Amino acid sequence: MSKPFTGIRVLDLSRIFAGPYCTQTLADMGAEVIKVERPVAGDEMRNYGPPFLKNREGKDSRESSYYVAANRNKKAITVDIAKPEGQALIKQLAAVSDVLVENYKVGDLKRYGLDYAGIKAVNPRIIYASITGFGQTGPYRERPGLDGCFQAMSGLMTITGQTDGPPQRTGFVVSDTVTSLFTTVGIISALYHRNMNNGPGQYIDMSLLDSQMAALSHRATAYFLSGEVPMRQGNSTPSSFPSDLFPCADGLLFISAAADAQFERMLKVIGRSDLLKDERCKDRSTRLKHRDFFQKVLVDALAPKGMQVWVDAFADGDVIAAAVYTMDRAFADPHVKSHDVVMQIPHPDSATGTVPILRSPIRMSETPIDSYTAPPLIGQHTDEVLKGVLGMDDATLQRLKQDKVV
Fold it and tell me: What is the pLDDT, as a whole number, of residue 240?
């Protein structure tokens, strides 16, 4: 059975993370993604380790965890776009592609005639997506930047962490991730407009800073409505109790039971139904005024038993609660395992013969995303693509290799 994007070809000139993660999502959905890298050097993220995938000799390969995480289901070719013949190859590939994704600095590809104007001239129907730190316009458009910059500038760091601690960076590249997903939505929308409404191709300007600020969502809206600058609040929610972390015998639990019915069920689970008659328990606002009292009630009640006992008890009692897992425990959870979140797929240069990936969370009934290929070795598909897509003969291909164009 075909995947949703079967028949769509994506020319991927991106590297690092936001662009590759976007094109990986398109590849998961069935698009033919041709990843273009520099000869020899390749995508910078290949070397962004440790850790690295171990090769067949048991040594570190050139494939870091960052690269492996964002490049499955792609074909990899190498092209030197600084050379005129390399630029011509990109234009030939763009002429038979539906989408081009790049994340070069503003103006870099224009020098090679590979900006939107140059590509549109050979393919007016192409969807051309540019991902940069600050976008194509504005006073910062030429500045470089990475995830930490945009977590800092967007205000995200100042609302993350403990109330008495410094601003805190999140534990993964959230700015890159949200930008990649917004870019994917933009590309799908542009393709729909082109294909369903007989519209033209178009240019998509994506900024990591814009995307991270958009992802602030309700926290930013609260600022707009109240005029109060939001700050760090740890794991609690000022307008709800309980909605926080609580210690038990062998770890921490997250519990959310602020609504009246939820709070009543929680008290039953922890064996404190007697408090239902207490005036301090009357309603949500009253409980908030006495949160210190109820905090102690919860801490005292939870202390004797372990996480799993409480998680099961809260589940049985229809109370929202979860154990705070380390990552090893998260992947060992029986529900996570039942969803096959982690897959081992064949890899030609792995010490084990396989590489672990996180499967797509998109579960579709008619066009399932259920097959994956390993992140490609550098230049692994150069011959296949240039011959199969462009119809290049062996002599021309050999000459391009000798001239170090590919």
Answer: 85
3-state class (DSSP) for residue 318? coil
Residue type (1 letter), 1: M
Q: Say if CB 35 and CB 67 are below 8 A apart.
A: no
CATH of domain 243-325: 3.30.1540.10
Report pLDDT for 237.
Answer: 80
3-state secondary structure at position 374: coil
Run of H or E residues at 136: none
**Virtual torsion, Cα 90, 382, 36, 52, nearest 10 deg:** -170
- Residue 122 burial (10 A CB sphere; 0-12, 13-18, 19+): middle
Angle value at C-alpha 218, between 186 and 363, nearest 5 degrees: 50
Query: Mean pLDDT, consecutive 10-residue segments, the chain of 406 residues?
Result: 91 97 98 97 93 94 95 98 98 98 96 98 98 97 95 96 94 97 98 92 98 96 94 85 94 95 96 94 92 95 96 97 97 96 95 96 93 96 97 96 96
Instruction: Locate the DSSP E strands across 257-311.
Output: none
Structure tokens at 163: 């109330």
Q: How far apart are the first and last CA of the chain?
A: 34
Give residue 1's pLDDT: 65
Q: In whole angstroms, what separates CA 389 from the centre of its chain?
A: 30
Omega cis (within 30) before 4: no
Short-list 68, 65, 27, CA closest to 184: 27
Token look-up 């390749």 returns 42
For the chain, where do the domains classified as CATH 3.30.1540.10 start and end?
Answer: 243-325
Give ∠ CA 190-77-133 in degrees, rounded to 5.
50
0.90 exceeded by the pTM? yes
The neighbour count for residue 267, using CB atoms within 10 Å, is: 23
DSSP letters for 37-96: E-TTT--GGGG--SSEEE-TTSSEEEEEHHHHHH-TTEEEEE--TTSHHHHHHHHHHHHT
Determine whether 12 is an active site residue: no
Q: Where in the chain is the domain with CATH 3.40.50.10540?
A: 9-216+360-402
pLDDT at 236 (0 to 100): 85
Which superfamily, per CATH, for 9-216+360-402? Crotonobetainyl-coa:carnitine coa-transferase; domain 1 (3.40.50.10540)
Q: What are phi and psi of 183, to 5 degrees?
A: -65, -40
Selected catalytic residue, list 176, 283, 312, 403? 176
